Amino acid sequence: MTSDVFSAIHFLTRPLGEASAHTSQQGALHAALGANRALLLKQLQSDSSLQQVGRLREEVKAAADWFCSETQDITWSFVQECLLLLLTLTRHLTNELKRFQEAQPSSSGRLRTPEMAPPLPPDVLSVSQQKTLSAALQFVVSLGLCPYLATGVGIPLGRRSAFGAVVEKLIQREASPAAGRRLLTTTRVLLQVSELATLATLVFTRHLGDVMAALCQLGYEPHHKDNRPLSTDECQSCKEALRNLLGKVYQPIVIKELLILQGGPKQSGPAGSSVGSSGSSRAALGSAPAWLRRLCGQLLSKRLMQPNGVQAVVRAILEGGAGGDSDWRKCDAVARILVACPQQSASADGYFRLVCPQILDLLHVRDKLTAQQFQRVATRAALSMEQERRSFAQQYLLGPLLTPLHRCITASVEEHPQVAVEESELTRCLEDVYKVWVVGNGPSATLLTALEEVIPVIFTLFCFTKQNVSHLRAPCQEILLWFLNNSETSAALSSLRQLSGLREHKNDVAVEFYFTAGSDGGVRLECRQTCSDEDEELYEKLSGEQWRLECLMQLLAQLKDSDLPGDFFLDLLQELTSWAAAADEEIDEKKVDVAAMTLLEVEQQLLGGSERQAEKLALLQVLAVMVECLQHDKLLRRTSQVVDFMLSLLQRACVGLDVASGPSVGNPVESQTLSMGMGLVATLLSAPQLSSEDYSCMSRLLPSLEALSLQHPDMVIQELASNLRAIIATHGAYRPEKLADPPAAQSSRNPEGTPKKNKMKSDGKKQETSASTYSRFPQSSQHPSPAGRGGTSSSDDPDPNNKPFSDWLLDACDPEVPTRAFALRVLTQRVQRRDPEAVQAQEKVLTLFLENLEHEDAFVYLSAIQGLAVLADSYPGRILERLLKDFQHGPSLPSSNKGRSLETRLKVGEVLMRASRAMGELTPHLGRPLVSVFLQGTKDPDQSVRASSLSNLGELCQRLDYSLGPLAQELSSCLTALIKTEKEAEVRRAAVHVIAQLLRGLSDKTTQVLRDVLLDLYRALKWVVRSDLDEVAMLHAQLALEELDDVMRRFIFPEQKLEKKIVVLP
């Protein structure tokens, strides 16, 4: 019967043939409507297949109190027939669906296979049926609803299409029933039809705005008491229907339709504008009446303040955008709407209490297409609220957003015995902070103050993520950098002092809690377990403070085009200068008579002194880490910062000049530092162009330079200070000739005050300090050795070849570190060139290298290691045998220090590794003894020797190629045993790394050389990946498995080579 109903609807709505040329469009439409209605009535009476439809129609007609059979308006008669057929279809489908649902339980007991499709409900319509029904609905809305809307209510038909303009002229408003009753009848029937879900989809997807406009007019349009088209109950029912309709339809669509109903010149026109209209798109919507504008405003405010109302408003305005500039302007407009409290709200506090959580929810949208726009709305709304409604923003927006970070500060064991902040909660909080502060990029005072309270927690979290793999590292770093870049200099410096430990930790993570890694790559805050070992706790504290300093320096290094690192550095130097000035007062305090003080006063004085000493040590530690980790162009970017640095240095040098025991008297380190600093000033003054601003900035150095030129005991510094003072004071008009002479070099040479050689021998520590400084220069600048034997300078004989070989042997025993190291480098070059004297004296050279191998200075023993490696390469037979014996049993020289035997053995292992690399094609011939010694070394009691033996074994075995075959079983047994039984992680790492080096070195030969042990090695590597707790060992094993995978892929799938073969047949 469903198809019969649609056949009847088709008779009513089908188009007729072409109209006569003499007939107007209005007349043709009028005739078509009458003809179709007459055809339908005829078919219902004559066609036997439509008898059931006719009976059901009569039942509907009898129940319809609105049906008017006496009307003279053809269009309304046509609309009535359409409404009757729609109600007939609705009643039929409702009855069929009810019977279908009642029959479902009985049929469910039948045997059904998984392949069988579920039975199709009777209310499912085909495409043709939907098309027919859509045509009927369009006739109903166009002829029975839109023409009776008041002016300004909804979009007029004339502006929708040319057909709408014809329909407007066709309607007879004066005929019965009245226009208000017609509108009420059409609206009620459409709402009855929409009670069936299948039909409601077709009604509301195309005609929701018209139905809403009709309900608004019927329920809310003001009328005079004497001219009311509807009764009070009918108006109230329309209001209730409107509320129900707005509640069950998708809210973004409702909001979009309400915005259209508001009308006005500020609204943009619809996509499908009128064909014959000549007005602009801004005029597509007429100006809505005042009562409708107020009503739409109230309804929009209710939609906004209901649950998920903010997201519905945002979706209604932004959905369908292309992401261009207009969409960004829309985002800003929506943000302004959200911040403006509507008049319908009882109070601003209640409004923002409802809206702010929904604004935060916009930050959590995961849809990639809309997340960026939602984030833009949320950030702009937050920034606007901070500017216009600061109290509400702090209470309902920033406070809840930062709650997890504040809980990290205020957490207690009683409230959170296990986990204080979950991983998901902390991750969401940091992502929100990043979006609002960093992406929003609105550096206002309120946002900076709110963020400053939790900066210590974020920094602690950043330090933790730097030690682990976490996706929170990048947002933490970006948040910290944003804060440091946008804060005032004083606030940033204060925060840096707190983060570096120079001030009391405030607003940091609670003492009883600590961060741990989460299961999803995040971090959570857990309760700390009590540690019974005080030494372990102290070590963790000290190492943690050092790590925090290193992380802080990495942050400062990431700051681009910022003077903050230099300002922080100069601020610390200024504090160091003030402490130097207060040193005399501390000396006077120590001379106070303790006998006249009470025990409490004595205790307070001692505690105050220890606290000051701790602060000084912390300051020196921060300065040392800054100098070590940051480049000079980060610390001193501008000339003014260099001048401030020099001012601090000169002021510190001037402290105590009038006292005999001042810091610059008899202190060579202070004198050298002061000389280098003044050389820096001289370099600045030697620039080709200096402006008057530069000279005025340097004028702050004049008082300190004057004091140094008059009171410093070193004549060189006095003269240089006087010259610099004269240049700055005259703005470069006076310039001495020897200004460019390096002052540090003058002070270091100081021929009149150079200490004697016997004093230098007794000052071993100073010699090693100078040697470590000397070792930083490249080798090309080390040829002019600072001093030779007997006080002679090697700069008199710049060519080492002109110096006798015996003198270089003597210089290799010189107590001066630079001289000794340079002599060892020259001897290495002589051995490498096969110098006849070096070949003849190779035993002496070997002894010298072995003796210097035990030296404490790195520059010396590294030179000795290089020399021994060259000797082993030149004379492998005897030298390697001696080195292997020393590696196995320790140093064999009579003068060797037995207490440092382990360190010497490790150095010999380094020599053997370099020698293995240099063997080249001779490795199979010379490497067999080394393999045996290294395998024995894997059983050494000391873990460092075992690790060194394995490292050397890997370097050697990857070069043995096919010679490794006989040793494969022994090597495999050793490595697999160490991997599974060794307790030290360092040794297990080395064993796994040996396998990786083997596979990398043998490459395509792996399947031939390691054919018998390849499976055992593979199982060992898989065991490490699955069972080993050390992450580094697991990483090495994974890399080795990747090497093995590449080898096997090349073995199984060899590369196809396209080549031609020419065969000569006999």
Automatic annotation (TrEMBL):
Coiled coil: none annotated. Residues 101-123, 737-810 are annotated as: Disordered. The keyword Repeat applies. Signal peptide: none annotated. Belongs to the Tango6 family. PANTHER family: TRANSPORT AND GOLGI ORGANIZATION PROTEIN 6 FAMILY MEMBER, TRANSPORT AND GOLGI ORGANIZATION PROTEIN 6 HOMOLOG. This is Transport and golgi organization 6 homolog. It comes from Characodon lateralis.
